[in-house]
Amino acid sequence: MKRIALLWNIVKGDARVLWRALRAPERPVWLVPATALVALYALDPFNLAMPLAGIVDDGIIVPLVMHLMVRCLPAHLREGTLRRA
């Protein structure tokens, strides 16, 4: 149970960093399309054929891709020190 709580805290932190980065004017060009693709993948309606496998799949792949996206962000966006104009 502790591992699930730890994973949830990491996913929440990554989601916050991505949200701040998406709102920043100096965000990378790839961030908006990549976030849209991850959201579409998470909301994929084709999990009806194998519902349990789809839930497990989303629970593993989506957090991993979100974490990878955060790691690929520039340091000033990742650390939350956004430059304000």
List descriptors.
85 residues, mainly alpha, 71% helix, 4 helices
Describe the overall structure.
This protein is mainly α and about 80 residues long. The protein has one domain (about 1-80). About 70% of the residues lie in helices and about 0% in strands. It contains 4 helices and no strands. The chain has helices at about 1-25, 30-40, 50-70, 75-80. Helix 1 packs across helix 3 and helix 2 packs antiparallel against helix 3. The protein is flat and about 40 Å long. It starts with a helix and ends in a 7-residue tail after the last helix.
Write the layout of secondary structure elements.
Elements: H1 2-23, H2 31-42, H3 51-72, H4 75-78
Helix pairs in contact: 1-3, 2-3
State the order of secondary-structure elements, H for helix, E for strand: HHHH
Structural class label: mainly alpha
Major beta sheet summary: none
User: How many extended strands?
Assistant: 0
Mean pLDDT: 82
Helix content: over 70%
Distance between the termini: 43 Å
Taken as a percent bin, the fraction of beta residues is under 5%
Tell me the number of helical segments per DSSP (H or I, 4 or more residues long).
4
Could you name the ranges where pLDDT drops below 50 across 5 or more consecutive residues?
Answer: none
Task: Categorize the overall geometry.
Answer: flat
Q: What is the number of independent domains?
A: 1
Radius of gyration: 14 Å
Brief overview:
This protein has 85 residues and is mainly α.
